[in-house]
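Two proteins were folded this term; both appear here.
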Amino acid sequence: MQGIEALEQLRPYLIERYLEWVDEQREILLPQARPLSKEERARFQGYFEERILDLVRVATVDRIRNPEFYNELTMSGMPIPLDFNQAVGLALVDCIIIHKQLWTYPESAISTIFHELVHVVQIDMLGIRKHIELYADSLMQNDLQYHSVIFERQAYDLTARFDRKEPPFSVSKAIKQGLRQARLI
């Protein structure tokens, strides 16, 4: 518990560092990122607004790296809030990063892109700063358990509906309803 309390005390500093890291990663990855393919767009049609599908870019990487400031945390004996090295996908505002090994399994890649698109919509609704703040708060309230973070639960639930091939539904409306119920908007 002491580690989480220390992270909570560093919250303002960590929020700023995450915002810087997101900007840096986008600057590096957007030039090599591509728009959604015609096939991907067709799969996501009806779930996401056209403007989101137009906006998003996908970058394939060998590995998703942790922010450099994590070294400071580990040297101070603090826990890592979220280990991105273990991630297969990540949404950075409008840029979705996908681990290259995922493309070996096309359906898994599509499912992961859908999951990350849910985060893109969340960020679009809340703004990146508020999204990071609320994500961090939820992560700390849940003892750094990634799957307990409200934004992840929402993304996994909506992705499960997509994976079950349920008829298209508005991800935006579902997110808005969930965030209202959680009193986050």
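Next, the second protein.
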Amino acid sequence: MTKRKVIKLGGSVWEQLDAQYFEEWKAWVETGNELLIVHGGGPLLSSYCEQEGIKPVFRDGVRVTTDGVLLGARRILAGEVQSGIVQQLNQAGIPAVGMSGLDGASVHGKKVKGLGAVGQITHIHPRLFTVLSTNGYVPVVTSLVTGEQGVLNSNGDACAIAVAKAWSVDRFELLTDVEGVKVNGDYQSEITSAAIEAAIASGEIYGGMIPKVEAMMQATQHGISEVVIRSGKNALAAGTRIKEELHECTTTHLSTY
């Protein structure tokens, strides 16, 4: 039976990616399974904005996507970052096709009030993902999406999770710069959402790790059976599986068509 997997790949992780992942992904596709990669590129986008003299604007801790930032996202995320990822995948023998949520009107969003061109995902049209993957290609997706009045820049993790849900995947992986979720000084092979929330409350999970585990918990709430956070630097590390007890599990509905 064909299995589907979505990987969320951060821009900073890509630059340090363990080459063993290419072998893993190639084997996955060659055995008849389907793969889709959603990528970020925040550090390069920040560098672009700095070079262009575009000062960051934040509201309630969230970056505002101004016209200048949106232009940078189109140039950097959908251009420089994506073409580099596609090139390396192709060189590794993994046929890849770069696209954004705009292509085929695959991902739609609505503006978040007060944040410029920031988009919240509203619905997914996954047909293009399926057309590509069933013909042996790996879609490489950046999180620019279709809005009612133009292009919107969505959160990469949120985009990846929405795509994974709409595409009915068997496994969702977040590749990051750590080997998993650490509690009591040790990386956990499995952890529940309740345990994550307790570790956040106690301060054991803190800083930049909080949005990562919150994204993974959201994926389990969407009903995805396997949700794992792994190190992009070490493909041999098993990572941490986010395990959701059945009585805790709820399904968040996302419109698809």
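The mean pLDDT is 91. Helices lie at 11-14, 20-30, 42-51, 67-91, 127-134, 156-166, 193-202, 209-221. These notes refer to the second protein only.
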